[in-house]
Design brief:
single chain; alpha/beta; Spore Coat Polysaccharide Biosynthesis Protein SpsA, Chain A; 2 domains; 9-stranded mixed β-sheet; 17% strand
């Protein structure tokens, strides 16, 4: 029986792919596991590298498809998953040599649906690393389970939405889909997971290395794809509403959303700025601003909400002036 399935979407990552695959095939995990790589129409040597590794390591399965984006590549991989547990690994990242062993042991011990773990983040050359640790969750729950009903709202705020920072029971997510052709697809996906998982744990050990500051990464897009943030958070809102949790998490949801909006404003190409501002103006943010400012949010979250409120109430010239003063533009 396959115990773990590791899914790896691949698109034009020849510089990093061997490092990723090496970290997967050299795992200390002694039981059976599979590595499902979806070559999403790569035009560089990624496909060749995958075939070389698949010939050498039988646990690697390669699926080739036309380029359809990260979400579809992940969905394709999930159609072939046979493991009891599933882990998502992006092909420009890599994992610790004992990740699968330790996460599997912990999941078995605590009967976990989802394990959230720490990660390291740094430059593509593997340097300048810093650890992402979630102290608030560790202090509150330790090795005790939580879920959307038992956890305080701050957990929804502090758990990263990234798909790759979690270890999943496959039965929990087998029928879930990533939204196709959408940047920020991890946002609504985490809502789908969080609203159904009953036994979530946090393991404060860095098992994953996240490669940031890649100039060609989708998170660095400055074109029309920055508008995907609106669709992603509307999907998120709808999932929370349909499951009956929106009122509980409304303030946290909008804090996350407005921080993402400001982040996209930083990146937006100049010719898209006015359109982006107009889209914010037309987006219905159903929140009591004064109540929000009194809640227990970080100063930067309150400031971002103030920026959004200013945008919704003022003309473009004044907005442009404010954003330049704040060095957002």
């Amino acid at each position: 029986m396959t115990e773990i399935s590791v899914t790896v979407p691949v698109y034009n990552v020849e510089k990093y792919l061997k490092r990723c695959l090496d970290s997967l095939v050299q795992q200390t995990f002694k039981l059976d596991y599979e590595i499902i790589c979806v070559n999403d129409g790569s035009t560089d040597n990624s496909g060749k590298i995958l075939e070389e590794y698949a010939q050498k390591y039988p646990k690697i399965k390669v699926i080739n498809q036309e380029n359809q984006g990260l979400s579809v590549a992940r969905n394709t991989a999930m159609e072939h998953v046979t493991g009891k547990y599933t882990m998502f690994v992006d092909s420009d990242d890599f994992i610790a040599i004992n990740s699968l062993e330790k996460l599997y042991e912990y999941a078995q011990k605590y009967n976990a649906d989802v394990i959230i773990f720490d990660f390291l983040r740094g430059t593509p050359d593997g340097k300048n690393t810093r650890r992402q640790h979630f102290a608030n969750i560790a202090q509150k729950y330790g090795d005790r389970a939580f879920n959307i009903d038992t956890a305080e709202p701050f957990v929804y705020r502090y758990v990263p939405v990234a798909t790759w920072v979690k270890f999943y029971l496959t039965d929990l997510i087998k029928d879930l889909k990533f939204e196709p052709c959408l940047n920020n697809q991890d946002v609504p996906y985490w809502d789908l997971v969080y609203t159904r998982a009953k036994n979530i744990h946090y393991l404060p050990v860095p098992y994953y290395y996240y490669c940031e500051y890649r100039s060609d990464a989708i998170t660095q897009r400055k074109d029309e794809k920055i508008f995907d943030v609106f669709k992603a958070f509307k999907l998120s809102e709808n999932i929370l509403r349909e499951s009956g949790y929106f009122e509980k998490f409304k303030s946290v949801h909008y804090a996350h959303f407005t921080c993402n909006l400001v982040g996209r404003m930083h990146k937006a190409n100049p010719d898209l700025r006015e359109k982006f501002i107009e889209t914010i103006k037309n987006y219905d943010i159903d929140i009591d601003y004064e109540k929000f400012y009194k809640e227990d949010f970080y100063p930067f979250e309150k400031e971002n909400m103030q920026i959004i409120k200013f945008i919704k109430e003022n003309n473009y010239e004044d907005i442009e002036k404010l954003l330049k003063q704040k060095h957002i533009w």
